[in-house]
Each structure stands twice: as structure tokens, then as C-alpha cells.
Amino acid sequence: NGLKKYFPIKGGFFNTVVGQVKAIDGISFHIKRGTTMGLVGESGCGKTTTGRAILRLGGEKTAGQVLFNGREVYDIPKNEMNEMRTKMQIIFQDPFSSLSPRLPVGEIIGEAVKEHKLVPMNEYEEYIDKIMDECGLQPFHKGRYPHEFSGGQRQRICIARALALNPEFVVCDEPVSALDVSIQAQVINLLEDLQEKFKLTYLFISHDLSVVEHISDTVGVMYLGNIVEFGDTKDLFANPLHPYTKALFSAIPIPDPEAKMSRIILEGSIPSPANPPSGCKFHTRCKECMKICKNKVPEKKDMGNGHIVYCHLYDDVKGAE
Ligand code: SF4
Predict the structure, then answer these.
(1) CA of 283 to the centre of ligand 1 (A)
(2) pTM of this prediction?
(3) pLDDT in tens, 133-175
């Protein structure tokens, strides 16, 4: 709710703070229990920082709230935070670097289970076997090391490590981007199966719009630290409203040789979050930019059915508000 995360820029002779990078600049959204919210946008728009900030990874927030089951995550005392972390897990993009090469996979999956004493020690081995099995891994491979597994299997190990803690909410940060296309579908199917079985809630961060369309119930589109559009996945893909979303979605390949591609090419690159444009941050690249866009930040507009857009084009359109 209004979450901000700024990073200081230090410089000068005394290494003092000379500015700040506004990585997340006041974003609000909610994810219903048992559903998946996709978060899309160009590299550097703040998707990963959002995922990490929700989990209270990477220091304090700058402003706003993160509510998990109604509780402000940043107010949880340190001694309770460990327990809270078991409920909120993250799966990283790169299954190659996020696994310790020195530990056998059984230990990688079970390390935190032991630390949090989630199961009695006499049931521990059986528990790890069950988790590996749930994630499509052969339990008799638990003595092997990460380098002995393929990329897809390593991502399964990462998923098993998260699942072993019995989480309620999982941030999936580009979980299939580093995998071959043929393996991506298997991992996506696994995430969907586990969600159904264990009633998991996902924040699914990705730049792959086809994957997000497939897996998500709702989608948020980010640009330069802000959510510019949010809504039900079907609604948003069928009827994108924000000029940035339209440009992003026009880049999705259509598997039909007859189909006419009307690709919207965005000129220029994403501006620096250390010095974002005034008014609507997208105005430097928007083909529909008006005078007001350069000075006034667009307000939230509910276009009905929870379809939210931040754009002056809809200022006079009758919305749901
Ligand atoms: Fe374009 Fe203006 Fe809408 Fe921003 S507010 S996306 S500049 S039309």
C-alpha cells in the first residue's frame, strides 16, 4: 500500500548522499489468497525490488505498508521474523547460482527445515523424500550435488527448498527465464500443481508475457517504479488501456502467419530512476502524450471490474469510481 523503496546514491569527496534511486515509487496492489499475480515490465522497472521489498529483504522500506494476512511485515520483531520467513518464500531466477555447490540436495532442501524444527528428527528423512517427490525429484538422488542435475532439475530443487518450509506466499522471480523453452513448461506446470495442492499464493515476476498470461489471475504492469495498470489477466490482455501496456503487449508474437502485426515501437530507453521525468513518467516515450502529462502525475482510475489505470487519457472517461 503506497510502498516506496529508494536507494541512496553516494558520491563526492566525503562519499555523502547526493541523490536517490527511486526503485519503487509508491505502488499499491493486493493478491488474493490462492491466486497468482503476474508482475511485468522492462528490465530495471522495479519488479525484482518489489518482490524483495515485500519479503523485507534488502533493508528498510522508504514509505508505505506491506500487509501479509493483515499484519505489517516491517513491524514484525526480529525474533518473530524467522518464523514469518517460512510463510513467505522466494524462488530466484538463476537455479545455478542460488544453490550451494558444497551441499548435497537433501541438505539444501532440509537445511532450513532443521533450523526451524518444522518436523521431528525421526520424521525428517521421510519428510524430505516426500517434498522431493512432490517436486518431481527422485528421493534416492538426495545425496547428489547440484552440478549433477540439469537446469530444470535444479529449479525443482529450488522449488522443493521453498516448499519444504510449508509457505503460504511465494515470490517467483523470473523462475523459468534461465531455462530452455522445452523445460519451462514443465516447471510452470509444477508450480501450478503445487499451488492447487498446497493453496499457495504467488507473485510471479516475469518479462515473458505469454507465460504471465498463462499462469496469472491478475497482472500488474510496472514502469519506472510505478504500477501503471492492474487488472484481471483476461481483461487486461484483451483490453489493455495504458499506452505502455499496449506497446508491451504488441510485442507478443502471434502464432498465425496470416495475422497482421501492428507492433508499437517504443522510442528511446527507460529513463533513469534517479532522475525520473516529471508528471507521467512515461511521457518521454508516449506517442499520445498531452500537455498535462508533462506536469501532472496521473491519478488512479478504476475502469470497472478492478481494472485500474494511471493515465490522463482516461481523466474524463466515466470509470467505476
Ligand atoms: Fe501517455 Fe499521458 Fe497517458 Fe502518460 S498520462 S501514458 S504520457 S497519455
Answers:
(1) 6
(2) 0.93
(3) 999 999 999 999 999 999 999 999 999 999 999 999 999 999 9
Pocket lining: 243 vs ligand 1, CB cutoff 6 Å: yes
Taking alpha carbons only, the member of 64, 27, 66 closest to residue 47 is: 27
Please, which residues bridge with residue 40 across strands? 221
CA-based nearest residue to 132, from 111, 159, 152, 95: 159
pLDDT in tens, 170-210: 999 999 888 888 899 999 999 999 999 999 999 999 989 99
* Strand (E) or helix (H) holding 205: strand 201-205
- Give 61-72 pLDDT, tens digit per residue: 999 999 999 999
How many angstroms is it from 172 CA to the middle of ligand 1?
A: 30
The domains of the chain, with CATH numbers, are 3-314 (3.40.50.300)
Please give the pLDDT value at position 31.
97
Query: Ligand 1 centre and the CA of 288: distance in Å?
Result: 6
Tell me if 290 CB under 6 Å of ligand 1. Answer: yes
Task: Report the amino acid identity of residue 313.
Answer: L
H-type alpha helices, the chain: 47-54, 78-87, 105-115, 124-134, 151-163, 181-198, 209-215, 233-238, 243-249
Which three cell numbers mark 307?
A: 481494472
CB under 8 Å to 128, separation ≥6 — which residues?
106, 109, 110, 113, 139, 142, 164
Tell me how crowded residue 131 is: count the other CB atoms within 10 A of its CB.
24
